Amino acid sequence: MVAGIPNVGKSTLINTIAGKSAAKTGNKPGVTRGNQWIRLITQIELLDTPGILWPKFEDEHTGEMIAFIGSVNDLIVNTSELAETLGKWLIANVPACLETAYNKDSEDKISGYQQLADAIVKVRGCLRPGGEPDYEKAENILINDFRSGRLGRITLERVSD
Ligand SMILES: Nc1nc2c(ncn2[C@@H]2O[C@H](COP(=O)(O)OP(=O)(O)OP(=O)(O)O)[C@@H](O)[C@H]2O)c(=O)[nH]1
Ligand SMILES: [Mg+2]
Q: Does the Cβ of 85 fall within 6 Å of ligand 1?
């Protein structure tokens, strides 16, 4: 049986082992809706299962990290808040990744979330008609860049934690 939190690659792992696309996969949580047996050879089958989460998180940061990586349905989290929490975490922990992605041409280092949002607006051209900054677009860019690995390979938890 392959079990774990949503959207981490359980179905992909089974397909890789089976050597065929027997289980449905997709880049969002909740793709596998029910249990599904997939036969590897006559005597071995693997059970694909829907992603599961704890009924309650021990602490807020655990829930935040699960949301950062896209294991909570984006429809039930506030994108603005998620982007800000993620942005602040990245500034505090891996500032160099942000500098490389969004601030190469500036001499001022990104030191706060507003500065980060403005840097994304500038470098990725997030403007509304009329020239107003489109922060909503910048928020989505930050989340997508983090999840797709565009900011680099970033580890959220360390053994020392
Ligand atoms: N970069 C990378 N992406 C992966 C890997 N394994 C899976 N993915 C991608 O992650 C996304 C989720 O994969 P799934 O196999 O559907 O994940 P799941 O755990 O079965 O998700 P649920 O069924 O929703 O719980 C898909 O877009 C996969 O292509 C991996 O090893 N590396
Ligand atoms: Mg699945």
A: no
How many domains, the chain?
Answer: 2
* Closest of 41, 43, 23 to residue 33, by C-alpha: 23
What's the predicted TM-score (pTM) here?
0.89
Full residue range of the structural domain in which residue 25 is found: 10-48
- Helices marked H in the chain — which ranges? 10-18, 60-68, 79-93, 95-102, 113-124, 135-148
Residues with CB under 5 A from ligand 2 (ion): 10-11, 31-32
pLDDT in tens, 132-150: 999 999 999 999 999 999 9
Would you say the CB of residue 148 lies under 6 angstroms from ligand 1? no
Q: Is the CB of 42 under 6 A from ligand 1?
A: no
Residue nearest (by alpha carbon) to ligand 1 atom 8: 9
Is residue 160 one of the residues assigned to a domain?
Answer: no
